[in-house]
Amino acid sequence: MTHPIYTQQQLRCKSLDQLKRIYSEIGCTVEVNDRRCKDSWRSAIARYQESKLQKVDEQDIAQGEFNQYIADQANAIAPEELTVSEISFYHHEYYALDRLIATIDYDNDLTQPWVVTINNAEVFRAATPMMCDRYIRIHYKDGSLPVQEQETPASTGNEIMFQIATECEKYGLELLDDGIYTSDGEKLGEVGFTDGHWWFIRAVSEGQKVACDSVDEAMQMLLVAEVLDWDELLNRPFDQLSQQEWRLLMEFEPVEELVAA
């Protein structure tokens, strides 16, 4: 909470009761030597205000020195590598491009209140934020700084089903509870996403899951299997085969039988 700053001239115009009220309102803690004397109350108020202004000035100076130190270190140690996001005077975040590298926080410790935190764990503690800044930059530059784990948002079941439904609509297919069907009612198979990987199952493959890179690729593989002329594919020159057709040939059982023969 902020309070008005009273000048000596303003204080001289106040009565004893008014000075006592001001003393209480600003939360003054300076001892009044003679509580019957207005000069004692004025002196206590003035000294208290002066101490508060000095504290604010010291914090502004410290913040300015810290900002300048960060700028100097950025040029001297790791030019254009790390950027600092000042969330508050007591919390700074360090980034390499858009990746969070580390944070500096203040925790009220009497001797070493500034802390470097990575992955929610304390890795370094110092008396000043400048020492923490130097620790981060030196160890980041030489590769010894612990790697900050980046948060990866997990895909929900609804998001997965929405992506599959969108692809089905794009290709004129129908998504039902037990799989993906053509407009004629023929089941092509299933598409899913498990442990960060897409997969598909052809209706004719008796439940065999095949990994793929995206939902679009999974849908294309189901469609290729539905319209494919296997004899034509087997007789086609190798350099005319698409990536999907190569994968289908590798999984085609008659090919395995021919190789075994």
Please provide a written account of the structure:
The protein has 261 residues and is an alpha+beta fold. The chain folds into three domains: 8-61; 77-141, no CATH class; 157-260, no CATH class. Helix content is 44%, strand content 21%. The protein contains nine helices and ten strands. The chain has helices at 8-12, 16-25, 38-76, 129-141, 157-170, 215-227, 230-234, 243-251, 253-260, and strands spanning 82-88, 91-96, 99-106, 114-118, 121-126, 174-176, 179-181, 187-194, 197-202, 209-212. The strands form two sheets. It has a five-stranded antiparallel beta sheet with strand order 1-2-3-4-5, with helices on one face. The chain has a five-stranded antiparallel beta sheet with strand order 6-7-8-9-10, covered by helices on one side. Helix 2 (16-25) packs parallel to helix 3 and helix 3 runs parallel beside helix 4 (129-141). The chain is elongated, with a radius of gyration of 36 Å.
List the helices and strands and how they pair.
Blueprint: H1 8-12, H2 16-25, H3 38-76, E1 82-88, E2 91-96, E3 99-106, E4 114-118, E5 121-126, H4 129-141, H5 157-170, E6 174-176, E7 179-181, E8 187-194, E9 197-202, E10 209-212, H6 215-227, H7 230-234, H8 243-251, H9 253-260
Antiparallel strand pairs: 1-2, 2-3, 3-4, 4-5, 6-7, 7-8, 8-9, 9-10
Helix pairs in contact: 2-3, 3-4
Write down the Rg.
36 Å
Helix count, DSSP H or I runs of 4 or more residues: 9
Tell me the fraction of residues in β-strands, as a range: 15-25%
Q: How would you sum up the major sheet?
A: 5 strands, antiparallel
What structural class do the secondary elements suggest?
Answer: alpha+beta
Q: What is the number of beta strands?
A: 10
- Strand arrangement, major sheet: 1-2-3-4-5
Helix content: 40-55%
**How many domain regions?**
3
Order of H and E elements: HHHEEEEEHHEEEEEHHHH
Oligomer state of the chains in this structure: single chain
